[in-house]
Design goal:
Belongs to the NnrE/AIBP family. Belongs to the NnrD/CARKD family. InterPro entries: CARKD, Nnr, Ribokinase-like, YjeF_N_dom, YjeF_N_dom_sf. It catalyses: (6R)-NADHX = (6S)-NADHX; (6S)-NADPHX + ADP = AMP + phosphate + NADPH + H(+); (6R)-NADPHX = (6S)-NADPHX; (6S)-NADHX + ADP = AMP + phosphate + NADH + H(+). Its EC number is 4.2.1.136, 5.1.99.6. This protein has about 500 residues and is of the alpha/beta class. The protein has 2 domains: about 210 residues, Rossmann fold (3-Layer(aba) Sandwich), CATH 3.40.50; about 270 residues, Ribokinase (UDP-N-acetylmuramoyl-L-alanine:D-glutamate ligase). Helices cover about 40% and strands about 15% of the residues. The chain is built from 16 helices and 18 strands. Strands 1-9-18-17-16-15-14-13-10-11-12 form an 11-stranded mixed sheet, sandwiched between helices. Strand 2, helix 3 and strand 3 form a beta-alpha-beta unit. The chain binds ligand NPW, adenosine-5'-diphosphate (ADP) and potassium ion (K). The site of adenosine-5'-diphosphate has 18 residues, from helix 14.
């Protein structure tokens, strides 16, 4: 398990740990781990010069420990310190250490130095308000250059709980690496956190994490759905892997259900149907395995349903959605289905009373409509939004976008680490809905199907980027084959 802890939880854990340790020892361990990483990050440079930004609190103390260690190692270190009204005791000790050896202190950002590394120790989990004044100016100055940045605990200015920048018009230090202490934090993995934290390293500092208290959330990983990655029995047939029916495709929007259907087919569904609201095209020449039907008279009995891609908001769409929600078949609700649900309290009620597996796959705008708030509110706390939707509608939810957030009605939250901005192009969400439908059709339970689909979909995009297909110009149509490769590799690795 890769747990993610809220700031409040980290504070509790820290308090317990500090009580049984000599003063300053956690800060020294933080400084030790961070300086080891810093040394690695500058190892390729000759005579590297390192700038250490030290804030007024204990995050600044960590930074001063790093400065002292690097100075001792013979690396040229300059500290720029933003002192507060008072200095906490551990940080005061670290300041004495840094002053005692080999570290230069500057009053302002030295001009014309090409820093091999900037260590950001302005603010960590104690950030209380938006960066302003000197801290804001420093963050902006660092972000304007392409110096490598190592953030201590949390990039300064980022909310470790939510992954949003703190304050209206907020600014944060943009780091390539973040070394985070004691426990990993959700804000480093979703929303703006992914861009600002960069690669995250966890330094536990030898602190025991509470086995009994559940973490706020966890990162998605293969272990969470591995038990459903079976090798196929020799004696299987197409009926063994379920049917998926994709319902959607109003006028001009036929591509959306076709992309979902291709996603479902290549993620292993035995048979895939596309029931269209607009004229039935009869055939997808590029994927002739798909079977087309008219949505109006179509009976999807026996199929897992993916409903919504390109469906529009017509009376027919509403009727089809109502019928789908009324049945017991596993259901993936995407795109226009979500907009119809947002606009119809009856559908919300019906949804909350369903017993079959139900996955909701909103992007932030769809989530905003469903909750009756703005996108800014959703993105301001993505975990809270996903949790609220799952609880209200009693469904499994994935709030999509960088660091997709999955939530269950019981409050469990998982953040997905796979995927990249190559996915920020039309139709990739349709493919995700199709993959999810395929896993459900193959008998995966609702929650694991959503975890698996989101992980595989992101990993497919990562695989394409590694092959040079994207992020620029990656297309949704390329994802199904890549998802197929990822799934088969996983089955070989785990199930085989
Ligand atoms: N305790 C330990 O042993 C360990 C702690 N650890 C480390 O400590 C970090 C937490 O330390 P922390 O609690 O001191 O908070 P920190 O992030 O330094 O910020 C608070 C200071 O900033 C100030 N301030 C806040 N916002 C501001 C703003 N916008 N603009 C200006 N000022 C602002 C605030 O002042 P005030 O709000 O009172 O004005 C206060 O002075 C944690 O992330 C980890 O790195 C690790 O070493 C493990 C061991
Ligand atoms: N920057 C990003 N990083 C990672 N994943 C992303 C990013 N942007 C979009 N995605 C993913 O791409 C998909 C887009 O879905 P959606 O917005 O519904 O698109 P569409 O409706 O065009 O199919 C989602 O799975 C989302 O999580
Ligand atoms: K920091």
């Amino acid at each position: 398990m890769k747990p993610l802890y809220s700031v409040a939880q980290i504070r509790d854990i820290e308090t317990t740990a500090l009580a049984s340790l000599p003063p300053g020892s956690l800060m020294q361990r933080a400084g030790q781990s961070a300086s080891e990483l810093a040394v690695k990050l500058v190892a390729h440079r000759q005579s590297p010069q390192v700038l250490v930004l030290a804030g007024p609190g204990n995050n600044g103390g960590d930074a001063l420990e790093v400065a002292a260690n690097l100075g001792q190692a013979g690396i040229a270190v300059t500290v720029l310190r933003l002192a507060g009204a008072s200095t906490p005791p551990d940080s005061a000790r670290a300041l004495l250490r840094a002053r005692a050896g080999g570290v230069r202190f500057a009053d302002a950002l030295p001009a014309d130095v090409d820093w091999a590394l900037v260590v950001d120790g302005l603010f960590g989990i104690g950030l209380a308000r938006a960066l302003s004044g000197a801290a804001r100016a420093l963050a902006c100055a660092v972000n304007e250059h392409d110096w490598p940045v190592l953030a201590l605990d949390v990039p300064s200015g980022l909310d470790a709980d939510t992954g949003a920048l703190v304050g209206p018009d907020g600014v944060a230090v943009r780091a390539g690496h973040t070394i985070t202490f004691i426990g990993d934090k959700p804000g480093l993995h979703t929303g703006q956190g992914r861009d600002y934290a960069g690669a995250v390293t966890l330094a536990g500092l030898g602190v025991e994490l509470p086995a009994q208290a559940p973490a706020e959330a966890q990162l998605n990983e293969v272990a969470l759905f591995a038990r459903y990655l079976h090798p196929r029995a020799q004696n299987s047939h197409k009926g063994s892997f379920g049917n998926v029916a994709v319902i959607g495709g109003a006028r001009g929007m036929l591509g959306a259900p076709v992309l979902a259907a291709r996603g479902a087919l290549l993620a292993g569904a035995g048979r895939v149907f596309v029931a269209t609201l607009d004229r039935n095209p009869g055939l997808d020449m590029a994927q002739p395995e798909l079977m087309f039907r008219d949505a109006a008279g179509y009976d999807p009995a026996g199929s897992t349903l993916v409903i919504g891609p390109g469906m529009g908001d017509s009376a027919d769409a509403l009727r089809l959605l109502h019928r789908a929600q009324g049945g017991a078949a596993p259901l993936v609700l995407d795109a226009d289905a979500l907009n119809l649900i947002a606009a119809n309290p009856d559908l919300q009620l019906q949804l909350a009373q369903r017993t079959g597996a139900t996955a909701l796959t909103p992007h932030p705008l769809e989530a905003a409509r469903l909750l009756g708030v703005t996108i800014a509110v959703i993105q301001g706390d993505r975990m809270a939004a996903a949790r609220e939707l799952a609880a209200r509608l009693r469904c499994h939810v994935v709030l999509k976008g960088a660091g997709s957030v999955l939530a269950r009605p019981d409050g469990m939250v998982v953040i997905n680490p796979t995927g990249n901005p190559g996915l920020a192009t039309a139709g990739t969400g349709d493919v995700l809905a199709g993959i999810c439908g395929a896993l459900l059709a193959q008998g995966w339970p609702g929650w694991e199907a959503l975890l698996g689909a989101v992980w595989v979909h992101g990993a497919a995009a990562d695989r394409l980027v590694a092959q040079g297909v994207g992020p620029i110009g990656l297309t949704a149509g390329e994802l199904p084959a890549a998802a197929r490769a990822v799934l088969n590799a996983l089955v070989l690795e785990i199930g085989g």
